[in-house]
Amino acid sequence: MRVMVIGDLHEPVTHPGYLAFCQDLRRKYKCDTVVFIGDVVDWHAISFHAKEPECPGAGDEYEQTREKIHLWHKAFPNAMVCIGNHDCRPQRLAKTVGIPERALLNYNTLWGYEKKDKSIKPLTWTWGFHFKFDNVYYCHGSKSGGIHPAWTKSGKMLKSVVMGHCHSRAGVKWRVNWDERVFAMDVGCGIDMDAFQFVYGREMDDKPILSAAVVLDGEPIHVMMPMGRGEPYHKSNFSSKKG
């Protein structure tokens, strides 16, 4: 399989050039499978942490996010999505007041887009907490951390792992024994670090790494997004697509 792996989006605050970068990467490597590694939405308004007063409320954030998700769904209609800790915030919050998960909308309906007759057309994505192709394990890594998060998980599982969640960690590490070789890859993310939702990280030394990855027949390739001034995915090249 030729798998395209898209980093954490945190819509509606993804870097404006990240969608084009991911589309170009899929074309370059002729990928036949697409995996979102999790946290496709941010849900800042229903965070368990302090909210930034400059950010939109829950209703506005939902509408903004749904518009952005529609663009990703149009580009990658048959993708698989690893459920991240931000994606399942409504379910987590519902539990605190005794609402069972079955009383909530499923992800495809929740983020489906509204038709002219006001009905909702659901997404066609496949959602799950993990997937496995060519003996490689894909997950968000919600409870992982440290300097090399995917490496740690790979060591526990004794399996090749592709993971998201930790925005400032990215790249590939290998381990080899007498019988096999396995890798651990942190994908990076696609967030707009200037957004108010990420103001908590502005004084951190480790900044988000904007990147994505492909796994070709079980072999990993990590790709940084050229987003500096004068590079193809700099914000200035996408100013008309903001908002």
Describe the structure.
The chain is an alpha/beta fold and 243 residues long. The chain has one domain (2-241): Purple Acid Phosphatase, chain A, domain 2. The chain is built from five helices and 13 strands. A six-stranded mixed sheet has the order 6-3-2-1-12-13, covered by helices on one side. Strands 7-8-9-11-10 form a five-stranded mixed sheet, covered by helices on one side. The radius of gyration is 18 Å and the shape is globular.
Task: List strands and helices in order, with pairings.
Layout: E1 2-6, H1 18-29, E2 33-36, H2 58-75, E3 80-82, H3 89-96, H4 107-110, E4 113-114, E5 120-121, E6 126-128, E7 130-133, E8 136-139, H5 149-157, E9 160-163, E10 171-176, E11 181-186, E12 211-216, E13 219-224
What does the largest sheet look like? 6 strands, mixed
The CATH architecture designation is 4-Layer Sandwich
Number of helices: 5
CATH-derived topology: Purple Acid Phosphatase, chain A, domain 2
Portion of residues in beta strands equals 15-25%
Integer count of domains: 1
Count of individual beta strands: 13
CATH superfamily: Metallo-dependent phosphatases
Which class in CATH terms?
Alpha Beta
Structural class: alpha/beta
> From the alpha-carbon coordinates, what is the Rg to the nearest angstrom?
18 Å
Gross morphology is globular
